[in-house]
Amino acid sequence: MPKIPPLLVAFLLYAGPALAADPLALSAKADQMIARGDLAQAVDELKAATSLFPYDEGVRRKLAFTYTEIAKRDLQSGHFSAAAEHFGQAHELLPASAELGLMRGIALYLGKDYAAAREELLQAGEGSEPLIYLGKISYDTGDLPGALEVWRRAKGKDPGNKTLETLIGKAERELPVESRMDKGYSSMFDLSYDAELPPGLSAEVLDALESAYNAVGADLGVFPTTRIPVLLYTKKDYSSVTTGPDWSGGLYDGKIRLPVGGLTRVTPQLRAIIFHEFTHVLVAELTHGNIPTWLNEGLAEMEGRKEFAPPLPRFGAVQGKHVLPLTSLSRGFAGMGGKEAWLAYQQSHAMASFMVQRYGWYAMQQLLKYLGERAGIEEAVAKALSDYGLDLDGVMREWRESLTATAAGDGAN
């Protein structure tokens, strides 16, 4: 029997597995991993397959698909920069896919990387969706005329798009007011204000905003790096622009909007509103809007009342067991009448204050983090308070017990 040369033996040992494999077999193995949800492992398998078969289109498409699925998970979890990276990796594999470029642009926009998002979206074509997001970038960065021009162009391509109708209508209400506004700036805030407002008020507002940035940021554990737009209105202009309820003292809808007509300086009440609205900025940054209204408003009330606390009786002493259900407090308060809204804010403040005082700011930060990862409020509470063995029902039970104790203490006095 002829002796096999040692070099050939080594070749067979090391190259044998690669020779035995084929793209279909490797792709099928990756499919099993994908079906199990092991996307990272599937990526490793498919990357190895592409190195073995670099010209196999099926393997490349499967790898691009897997990156896309990971990116979708990232989006759901609020990890926008990671989503943009994974969409970008998929796009490199399939450069002809305009949809992958669009998705990367959207992820960059959601992560507030506006320059990179604009560059990506400009490559995504003239469809209505990339134009919507290009308009949003202009809107968010203070270029209202530019946003309107892009959205109107998109409307011409997609006349029945209701989202565009809403965006254009909102921008058209704001433009006549904002076009006559003056500008002011601080380290993190871009301020627009009515030219008729008293001189010096804008500087005081910027000072209050910077104080809120530091104080509320320390409580919630986040300090935004993207500049924050703030607008000061006369009361009449505020009402026409926001179409909010009569009792509204401020609004955050991606921009902080404050009615300051008649004021010559920042009063304690206005300072409280500034801290309240800035809290909404940070809560939106942390949760991406996935938060029940009672917790959002409760935290904002907590921060605002540190600056100015109205002389009100303790919530428990007034309400006792007659509290609003969480279901009604989880939706927006804007549709409520003044009396009901007042009660909703009071109860929201009482619940949020109880949670921070009982469980601490770190637990609240964790709760907001889990909400930002798209957990429901029940799941987020259970995770954040796992050391206490509490779920949302348990927290509400402890809160109601605290009301009873408060009422009993007031009665004894």
Number of strands: 5
Percentage of residues in helical conformation = 55-70%
Give the overall pLDDT as a whole number: 87
Q: What series of H and E elements makes up the topology? A: HHHHHHHHHHEEHEHEEHHHHHHHH
CATH architecture identity of the largest domain? Alpha Horseshoe
Largest sheet: 5 strands, mixed
What is the CATH domain class of the largest domain?
A: Mainly Alpha
Q: What is the fold-level CATH name, i.e. the topology of the largest domain?
A: Serine Threonine Protein Phosphatase 5, Tetratricopeptide repeat
Structural class: mainly alpha
Fraction of residues in β-strands = 5-15%
Q: Runs with pLDDT <50, length 5+?
A: 7-20
Total of domains: 3
- Main sheet strand line-up: 1-2-3-5-4
Alpha-carbon distance between the termini? Answer: 106 Å
Counted by DSSP, the helix tally is 20
Rg? 27 Å
Fourth-level CATH superfamily of the largest domain: Tetratricopeptide repeat domain
Shape: globular
Which features characterize this protein?
about 425 residues, mainly alpha, Serine Threonine Protein Phosphatase 5, Tetratricopeptide repeat, 3 domains, 5-stranded mixed β-sheet, globular, Peptidase_MA-like_dom
Secondary structure elements and pairings:
Blueprint: H1 6-20, H2 23-36, H3 39-52, H4 57-76, H5 80-93, H6 98-110, H7 114-122, H8 128-140, H9 144-157, H10 162-178, E1 181-185, E2 189-194, H11 201-220, E3 228-233, H12 235-242, E4 251-252, E5 256-259, H13 268-287, H14 293-307, H15 315-319, H16 326-329, H17 338-359, H18 361-372, H19 377-384, H20 392-412
Parallel strand pairs: 2-3, 3-5
Antiparallel strand pairs: 1-2, 4-5
Helix pairs in contact: 2-3, 2-4, 3-4, 4-5, 5-6, 6-7, 6-8, 7-8, 8-9, 9-10, 10-12, 11-13, 13-14, 13-18, 14-17, 17-18, 18-19
